[in-house]
Write a structure and sequence with these properties.
The chain is an alpha/beta fold and 309 residues long. The protein has 2 domains: 221 residues, 3-Layer(aba) Sandwich (Rossmann fold); 45 residues, no CATH class. Helix content is 36%, strand content 30%. It has 11 helices and 14 strands. It has a 6-stranded mixed beta sheet, sandwiched between helices. A 4-stranded antiparallel beta sheet has the order 2-1-4-5. The chain has a 4-stranded antiparallel beta sheet with strand order 12-13-11-14. Helix 3 packs across helix 4. It binds adenosine-5'-triphosphate (ATP) and magnesium ion. Magnesium ion binds next to helix 1.
Length: 309
C-alpha cells in the first residue's frame, strides 16, 4: 500500500544533548490514503513538534519521512498539504473572505481558481453568511471554521489539523467532525492532533497515543477499544435458572436479562451458548464489550507515568 504520510524514527531535540528538550524520540508512523488518523497525547507530548517536522517548519534532528511520495520539507511535499495551526491568529482587520484570498495566494492559487475555491471552502465549513464580516468579530468556533477553510483553500490531498475543535462548542464540534468525514469521503487524508478523545473515537480510522516524544500505542479505534474476552449478553425473559447458575463464574454481572460475561476462548463461548439454548433460553444479542478511548488513554498514560518514577 502506498502511504500518504510516513515517518521513520523521527527525532527532534531542542537545545543540546545534555540539557535540551527531547521532544521526539524516534517516531515512526504510516498513514494510508483516505484515512482519518489522530495523534493523541497529554500536553507537551510532542504532537505539535511532530506536525511541524512534517511541514518543514521544524527540522528533525534525525530520521526521515515522506509526504505524498516526497521527502519531508521539500516544496513538492508541501504543495499537497493543507494546514490548520494550533492557536492560529489572522489579521483582525481582514474579513473571512479576505483571509481565504490572502492564504490562497500564498499557496499559489490564482484566479479564476481562487474565487471558485473561496466559494467552495466557505460552503464546506458553513461560513458563507459571515464572509464579509471582519475576523475581529468572529467567535472561537467561527475562527476555527475559517481556519479549516484556509487549510482547504489549495485543495490539498493531505490535511493536517492541530487541535481543530479547540474552544468550539458541542454543535460546532459536531459540524467540524462532519466536515472531516466529508473530506475523507472525498478521498482526502486527514491527520489531526486532539485532546478530545470521545470525538476522535467517533471519526478516526486509526489513532496513536504519544507520551514524552514516543508512541506508546497505535491501531484502529476498533482494535484499541475492544476488550479482550468480554461480551454483553442479552437474553429473553425466561422462567428457568439464572444465568450465573448455568454459566457459573463466566458471568461478571447479571441484571434483568442483561449480563456481562467473559470467556477465555471462542470454544468456551460456544459451549456456553449451547448450554443456554439447552435450557431453553433465547439469546437476543451477544456483542463484544468496548472500553472508551478515554479509559485506554488514562490507563496507558497513567502506567507510563508510574514507570518513569
Ligand atoms: N521551539 C522550541 N524550543 C524548545 N522547546 C520546545 C520548542 N517547541 C516545543 N518545545 C518543547 O517540546 C515539548 C513538546 O512540545 P509540543 O508543543 O510538541 O507538545 P504538544 O504535544 O503539542 O502539547 P500540547 O498538547 O500542549 O499542544 C515540550 O516540552 C515543549 O516545551
Ligand atoms: Mg500542541
Amino acid at each position: 500500500m502506498e502511504f500518504a504520510l510516513t515517518t521513520d524514527s523521527l527525532v527532534k531535540r531542542f537545545g543540546n544533548e545534555a540539557t535540551g528538550v527531547h521532544a521526539l524520540q524516534g517516531v515512526s508512523i504510516s498513514v494510508g490514503h483516505g484515512e482519518i488518523y489522530s495523534l493523541l497525547g497529554p500536553n507537551g507530548a510532542g504532537k505539535t513538534t511532530f506536525i511541524k517536522c512534517l511541514l518543514g517548519i521544524v527540522f528533525p534532528t534525525s530520521g526521515s519521512g515522506y509526504i505524498l511520495g516526497h521527502p519531508l520539507g521539500e516544496i513538492k511535499a508541501k504543495e499537497g498539504i493543507g494546514y490548520l495551526p494550533e492557536n492560529h491568529r489572522y489579521p483582525l482587520h481582514l474579513t473571512g473572505e479576505q483571509v481565504l484570498s490572502y492564504f490562497g495566494k500564498l499557496s499559489g492559487v490564482t484566479e479564476p481558481t481562487l474565487s471558485k475555491r473561496i466559494e467552495e471552502t466557505l460552503d464546506i465549513v458553513g461560513m458563507k453568511d459571515w464572509r464579509n464580516t471582519r475576523v475581529r468579530k468572529y467567535s472561537k468556533g467561527m475562527m476555527q471554521r475559517i481556519g479549516l477553510a484556509q487549510a482547504l483553500i489549495n485543495d490539498p490531498k493531505l490535511i493536517i489539523l492541530d487541535e481543530p475543535t479547540d474552544g468550539v462548542d458541542p454543535v460546532g464540534r459536531k459540524e467540524i467532525r462532519e466536515v472531516l468525514v466529508r473530506l475523507r469521503n472525498m478521498g482526502k487524508t486527514v491527520f489531526l492532533n486532539s485532546h478530545l478523545l470521545s470525538e476522535v473515537e467517533r471519526i478516526s480510522d486509526r489513532v496513536a497515543i504519544m507520551q514524552s516524544g514516543r508512541l506508546i500505542t497505535e491501531g484502529t479505534v476498533n482494535d484499541l477499544t475492544r476488550t479482550k474476552n468480554e461480551y454483553e449478553l442479552k437474553v429473553s425473559a425466561h422462567d428457568g435458572k439464572s444465568l450465573s447458575s448455568i454459566l457459573k463464574e463466566a458471568v461478571l454481572r447479571e441484571e434483568d436479562g442483561q449480563s456481562d460475561v467473559a470467556f477465555e476462548s471462542l470454544q468456551e463461548l460456544n459451549t456456553a451458548i449451547d448450554s443456554l439454548r439447552s435450557h431453553g433460553i433465547l439469546i437476543e444479542s451477544l456483542v463484544p464489550k468496548r472500553t472508551s478511548l478515554e479509559d485506554i488513554f488514562i490507563k496507558l498514560i497513567g502506567s507510563a507515568e508510574v514507570e518513569r518514577r
